[in-house]
Amino acid sequence: MAVHLETEDLTEPCFHGAPPIGPEPGSPSTVWITFEGIEGSGKSTQIARLADRLRRADIPTVVTREPGGTETGRKLRAILLRPSTKIHPMTELLLYAADRAEHLYQVVLPARERGEVVLCDRFLDATLAYQGYGRRLGTDRILELHRRSPLDRRPDRTLLFDLDPEIGLRRARDRNSEQGTDATEGRFEQELMDFHNRVRHGYLDLARGEPGRFRIVDAAPDADHVERAVLDELADLLPRLADTR
What we know:
alpha/beta
């Protein structure tokens, strides 16, 4: 029996007035940066480079990811990214939300309480782009789910690594082939180009809707060029990075 999914008009503003929510009152003021982008956009490379700079500057730093930033999350990641997984888009959404709740409780919020910098590979914006736009679930139901604690937390800065999906997919598939992860983490790389174009469109819509939080980084040049752009976009939040350049 066919399942009908109601979708919303994806041309409307994505956050519908939902304010970003930071640390609880009285918590230390820390920096939480998320890295977003389509497959093969180079996020992981730039997170590793930035973490190395921060640690060389003696800035306590936590590097984490979604899905898979906790023990429970790693089990969910295996389900979500395995190409053989066949699940309904709503099931997929709820699994990502479960991973996120555990990740916030176990990793992100404790790190913020300790006053550490948090670098996170994907967060809510990935769900909005991939499940909201890519899977055509729309954004309203996702945002409604994320209005409740702990899912109501938002990062201080989001770097969106923008890239032509054809280039990104080629990079991602080459990477999976080299690392031997085609059979374990290649599920989204198997999607049609239309899906990835919708995801990119969704990310750019999100960035236009929150220019104060988002910074768009051109991910097409070489890694050194992209790293310089990343440092420029974070200079206001992390002024001590200037000493590492």
